[in-house]
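WP5 quarterly update. Target: Type II secretion system protein J. Source organism: Thalassotalea piscium. Length: 214 aa.
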Amino acid sequence: MRYASQKTQIGFTLLEVLVSVAIFALISLASFSLFDGVLKSEAVSKAQMTRLNEVQRAWMIIERDILQIAHRSMRIEGEAADKNFIRTSFDGYASSDNALAFVRYGWTNPGLLIPRSDMQSVAYRLDDKQLQRLHFNFVDSVVGEEPKIRPLISGVERISFEFYYQKKWQKTIEEGRLPLAISIILDTEDLGVLTRKFLVAGESEATQTETRRL
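Structure tokens (predicted):
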């Protein structure tokens, strides 16, 4: 009796190899997409955190200044001082009325070692979609002196201010008086409208009422 010889084939067919390569490619693509998504999510989170820190730092600086507003008018480029302690429209710091300026106490100068006052004239303005803090080395700036500029918040479309007098908010300041609080409204490109209210260490409501009666 004759038996036919059979040879056992070991290996993969071309179809099996193609299917394996396709499965490996799909797994690699899914892994890459997942990894890329994680990286993008991390980048977005970092950008958002940086943005929020920028805004929070700006609010802290503004609050520090407003809490130390002085009962002192300011002179810009040698002009005569007026009766207002707060200014919202002027040419020395900005060419528009999107600005707020005043004199504050507490500019550190131990023992008056630096030839300047411990008071500081500061202003906040919107310039090219950037909220900036400005100040001069001296309380009353001289003609031609350029202010020091500190960028605070970028991407700001509009800025407006409101002032709290006699239990109500209003858009104008009252001559010769400090408000009880100041509200700053920022319209930003990415965060929408941001509003922050700051207390002013100035006159009490009782004092304002008595002054109004007089």
